[in-house]
Structures are given as C-alpha cells and as structure tokens.
Design a protein that fits this description.
OB fold (Dihydrolipoamide Acetyltransferase, E2P), 4 domains, alpha/beta, about 700 residues, binds magnesium ion, seven-stranded parallel β-sheet, globular, binds adenosine-5'-diphosphate, seven-stranded mixed β-sheet
Amino acid sequence: MNITLQTPIDYLKGVGPNRADLLRKELDIHTYQDLINLFPNRYIDRTHYYKINQLQRNTSEVQIVGEIINLKEVAQKRGKRLVAEFRDDTGTMQLVWFRGQKWIKEQLRKNKPYVIFGKTNWFNGKFNMPHPELELLDDHKKNLRSSMQAVYPSTEQLSNKGITNKVICKIMQQLFLDTKGRFAETLSKNILQKHQLLSKSDALFNIHFPKTQELLGRAQFRLKFEELFYIQLQLVLKNMIHKSKIRGFNFEKVGDYLNTFYKHHLPFELTNAQKRVLREIRADLGSNAQMNRLLQGDVGSGKTIVAFMSTLMALDNDFQACLMAPTEILAIQHFNGLTEYCKTLNIELEILTGSTKTSKRRELHKRLENGEIQILIGTHALLEDKVKFKNLGLAIIDEQHRFGVKQRSKLWHKNELPPNVLVMTATPIPRTLAMSVYGNLDLSIIDELPAGRKPIKTVHRYDNNRLKVFRFMKDEIAKGRQIYVVYPLIQESETMDYKDLMDGYESISREFPTPNYQISIVHGKMKPADKDYEMQRFFDHKTNIMVATTVIEVGVNVPNASVMIIESAERFGLSQLHQLRGRVGRGAEQSYCILMTSHKLSNDSKTRLETMVRSSDGFEIAEVDLKLRGPGDIMGTQQSGVLNLRIADIIKDRDILEQARHDAKSILKLDPSLSLSEHKAILNTYREMNKYRNIWNYIS
Ligand code: ADP
Ligand code: MG
C-alpha cells in the first residue's frame, strides 16, 4: 500500500484496530500526519542511570538497571496490588502495579537484567516505583535512543489500556521507518534561509528524537514558526479577500460637517495619536473596500471624539451612522456628550435603548427609515430587526469586548452592503494577541493621552485605615471635588455583594451626613430611569459622592470626579481595576485611586494591586493580566479556540509571531495568489490544511 501522510493510523505496524480506536478517541489521531504532529510535552534525560542507593526523596523520574527477584500479590482494601522486589548492586526497592497485573505477571522474567524507568515514591521506609516502564537490558541496548526522550501527552484511558509513553515512542519510531523520515517541505527557500530554519524533515525528527539540545531548540523554533506563519497567512489573506470582494460605501467627500467642526467647534487640540488614527480611518473610508477597523486606546485617550468625527465623514456623504454602547448609562452619556456638538452642526441625533418607550420607538423607527435621523446612539436595542436604516454607512461599536461576534455581525445586515465598521476598545489586548485574534481587522492605536493630564496617584490601603480615607475624602470634597466609591458585584454572590454595597452606603451616609454632603447611589437592581436620575445628579455636581457597583465601569465621564475608591479591590480583575480607575483623572485636577482591601491577599491579588500602584499604562497592565489569567480567559471562551496552538505559545513566542506575520504579509503583498514557483510549497501546504483540517475555522 502506498503510504501517505493521510494514511489511516491503523496501517502503522504496532497499532492495529484497538489501539487505533483509542488513539482516535483519546488524542484525536486519525492519520500518520496527526501522529507526527503529536508533539512531546517535555523531554527527559535517559542518558543517566541511577543506583538505588542514590535515590533521593525528591528525585522525579529515574532510570535504574537491576533484576526482579521476587513477585507477590498483596491484598488491599479493594482488590490487590502486585509488588515486585527489585535489586541492583547497591540495594533493593519495590515496583508496584495496581492495574494490568495479569499481563505483567505473564510477561515479567525473574533474575534477568531490566532497565526500569519512572517516578519513585517513599513509602514505609522504602522507595517504590508505581507502574514503571520496563525493558530488558538487552532490548534496551538495541533500541535507537536519543539522550532526550520525548514525553507525549497522554490520558488515563491510554495508560490504563497499556498505551504507555513507551508505546507511543515505539509507534513514532515505526512511522519514521515507514516514511523513511522524509517529509515534504512546507516553507519557501527564502524563509528557510532568512531564519536559518531546519528543514521540515529534520525538524520533525528532532522534535521526536532530539539528537542534541541545540537541535531540539531549532526544531521547536521551526515548528512554532510554521504554525504561526500559516495562521497569519490565513488571517492576512482573509483581510485581503475581504477588501477586494466586499465593496464598501466609499465616502469620497470631505464635506461641510467635518470641515466646520474641525475649524470652528473642536473643543480642544487633537493629540497627534488622534490625528493619526483619524487619517487611518479616513483612508479606509475613502477606499472602495468596507472598513473593518479596531481602535484601541487606553481609558481617557479620547476615542469618543475620534468616533464622532468619523460619523461626520459618513454624514458628509449622505449616509447615516450609529454608535452602539454596551450599557444604557454609557449610551446616555454619549448621547449627552454629542448632543452639544450636533446642535451647533444641525445634525439630527437620537438615542434608542431598552427602556425607550414604545411610542417613541415607533417614531424613531420611522424617522430612521426615512433618513431623518442622521446619527443613532444606543445599546443592543439597535440590533433588533425592527430597527431599519435608510442607508447606514458607518457603525461604531464602543467597548467591543462586551459584544459577541454574532452581535457584531448583525450590524452587517442592516443594509444590502455592509456598513463600514469601527470597533473601539479600552481594554487593550497586547498587540500579539490582537494580531492573532483580530488579525483580520486593521488595527489603529491611540497611544498618547491628551496633554496636561496629571497621572493618577494610586495607593493600596487596608480596611483598618478607613478613617484616614474618610478624612481624605472630606478634604477633597472641601476642595470641590467629587468621589466614586465602588463595590464589587459578582453574579454568583449577588445578594451578599448587594448587602456589602448597602452596608457601605449606610456607613458613608453616617460619615457624610446631609445637608453638608449629598450622596448618589447606583446599582444594577435599580430601574434605568432611577439610575439615570442619580447619574445625572452626580454629573451636575448636585451630589459629592457616588456609591456604585461596577455598572459605572465603562465609559462614564465626569471630569470633576477626582477620587476613585475601590472597595474589596482584591476581588476585581486587573483590567476592571484599570477601567474603574479611568473614571477619574479626566479633568485638570490631581486625581487619586485608593484600592481598599482586607489583610488576607492571595499572591495573584498582591500582583494585581502592585501592578495598579506601579503602572498606569493600560497596555502594560494588559500584559500582566494576560500572564496572570492566561489568554483564554481574557478573550472569553468564544475566542479561546484561537489559542489552542499545537506547539507555539501566543505569549512566550510573540517574537516568532511578529516575524511570521511580517513574512506572511510580505509574501502576500508580492504574490497574492501564491502562484510564483518559489511559493509552491506554501500554496500546497495552505491548500492541504484547508482541505483536511481547518485549523482556523474558529476565527470569526
Ligand atoms: P475614552 O477613550 O476613554 O473613551 P473619552 O473619549 O471619554 O476617552 O475622553 C476622555 C476625556 O478626554 C473627555 O473628557 C474628552 O473630552 C477629553 N479629551 C479627548 N481628547 C482630548 C484632547 N485631545 N485634548 C483634551 N481633552 C481631550
Ligand atoms: Mg469611551
């Protein structure tokens, strides 16, 4: 039979139908190719042989030469265990089996030299080794053996059914024999040369049977590069196809709205970063392709004005625009903020949220369909099918990480042609992660805060310092400042949190009595209208203190508020803390963030608090967050699939990722259809991958 990499695993000598079934079920290995791509988790040094009297209680895996001198069954609570006395010239130890005893009993030979390998335990004054790997010394000598032996991923089922690591190594060896270890090259000569990569065949051989540490390192580099390269190739290609196939609305004109606003009504000088990002957006909108852009910018970096000026580009070309926010509070705030600008420019602006009354809603629907409303701001309510635009040219999504992919794509279908899309986020994800997860979006970054911002002073205080904190609050209020006090609200313990919030509110009310002080409270259990009312009072400076849950986390903008007190700060995640802190520091005054915690802190909590005190850079904080929580958690389950890489690690291998992305881009730029002969290997591999196993169908 003609062996190819797609040959079912059953055909491999030593596999057979039962083992093949297990491999399929347990490790998803169906073909030769799948088996080769089962990369080891780690390697162990098998050049060293221990003597029994050298064993230490903390040595992990050891290899010993000796003989079995005795074999007995010992009854235990349930069933029995099989115990062998094992001896070398320095002492004795025990080998123990709790399962598979019949097979062992039949196979084992007494008084013959064996090499045993495994982890040792210290039990009853003696070392023992449960379920050792065993090999007759004669066989051991004959076997092809590299100094570093691969340890493969396994499952309980596999080891129960006798498919040990040794068996996997054996069939891997068989595979290399069957294929003569020759595998088609998957990268171009250029790339191989440029990065001094091992050939595919050498890399595969050395990942499974490393000859030296150095070769292992090079094998790993090569395979990581390849994995990341093909993911990036796919993403970049997707983006290109998207641009050539999906015609977008072309906003040719730079018209009166934008010009007038820019010349006469701009409330402040834009930062250079804002200007650059606006140019990037302008270039997208003025091209024929649909815009799909992610705008990242730290809290307070001024994304809103960029969003607004982008809508003006749409309006200047007689299109409508919408801005969708994740919470009602935020939508209202955007609405209030933009109302001013729109009045001076004579723009019809409206808001639609879950609590918009039916009669108002009907009117909105009508005015939206006949094109009277030029900008619509709102929440998820915008996504309802009833909401139809006359010609939606630009959709902006604020705090996009709070929306799912599905929700975003719904916006696409509001028109015949999809609108241009700008998604904004203040939860910066590190660039490398952005490139993998959103590699098919274009990325703009506002990496500069407006001038004159004083860095927020952040401190960590324990609960027993509360009186001092109260005093500080009073001083700040006396200076005319306003203060947020935030309590955690976590779904699982909602009632308990709610009680904390109310207790806190009471104690603050006692400490800050009327009529000298006024306090607002906002939490999730309130009716939207009451929330707005309280928010508005705080916004209008009718109250000094806002006691709230995390509902104020995103976007709320009250420049006069200069103190953020976060209660039980140890219970918040890093990005959440950073978001909350971003609510202050928006005016010209010195702002403060006080993180209150109990004395009991986990290591992770300590790291989070220290990071907050040390850094105000959202990107740096995101990196720490990523390290603490892992990428899957940050992106949510929805996108975590992208991080299921076979060998590369999105965080640790970011340098390789950058190189791979760079190469993928330049190759596609030169040769978008991969038709040059030098790219043949790449084209073939790409096709194969798409044919047999779509490793990236998780990318939206
Ligand atoms: P975010 O990026 O967090 O959404 P906002 O758009 O809410 O930030 O802006 C934060 C604050 O900074 C607002 O009060 C806004 O008016 C102000 N702002 C934005 N850009 C500038 C600028 N270039 N100069 C001065 N203030 C600015
Ligand atoms: Mg914002």
